[in-house]
Amino acid sequence: MHRKDIKALLIDDSEDDALLFERHTSGMDSFAVSLRHASTRQQAEAALAGGGFDVVFCDLCLDWGVSGLDIMRSAREHAIGVPFVIVTGASDEARAIEAMKNGAYDYLNKAHLSTELIEKTIRWVLQRTELERERDSAMKKLAELSVTDELTGIANRRRLMEKLAEETGRSTRTNRPFALMMLDLDHFKEVNDRHGHQAGDQLLRDCAAALKANLRPIDLVARYGGDEFLIVLPETDMENARVAGERMREVIKRLRESCNTVSIGVAVWAAGDDVEAIMSRADKALYEAKASGRDCVAGAAC
Asked: In sequence order, what are the residues at sequence separation of 6 or more whose Cβ sits closer than 8 angstroms to the Cβ of residue 35?
């Protein structure tokens, strides 16, 4: 039977206990355990910092001026996410249970150590680790979906408002500018009327992808609603925002022969602005672009 390779760290100041542990872990049916022994605090900290372990077995009572619980807490403070199993004497079980309440996955009593018990503990730790990994992945996906526009795959209004609040706060602290670009597809209703809503949806997806592909990593493009997109451009003044706006206008025009043109309004943060103020100026600039014949970029004065 194939045995799963496991890397384990034993933190214990007793060489006799380490030899006992090594004997138990070397005879397992399910796991081929590579056991590293840290017999000093310095060795333990270096090993934990190096990472790569599937499980850490840590003696609760150490002769180093710190306990196993202290070692575990320190690892968590340094974002070392390896699972800990506390190893304790018969009189320390209450403290071992306390360690579990503080994040240990399990505990083992030295008086009852056996190959079967340690193997069972490793299996439980791996199962719990996998369940937590799946949970974290699902939570991350849910978090991404909550700020993603379902149709286009770019940021939605919720994420846009978060980004605007972040940039407004940053500009207020640093007095550095950021620009807001409001884009509206010209005569978009005609696309739906002539070619159907599926064609309109595809056009929105194409526009979103093209805009995102032509922006910097620090920029954010979001679908604000309908055929309207907003772009947040950190560290950008009006001159550069207009240049970016002209680039976006050309990007949309080149998508396909039947594609609508786009009108763009640009506003730049000014001292005292809140989110509502800069959005209002960008909206006013967009109205000016529409009133000027569409397919152009208009900048709002502060």
From this structure: 8, 9, 10, 21, 22, 25, 26
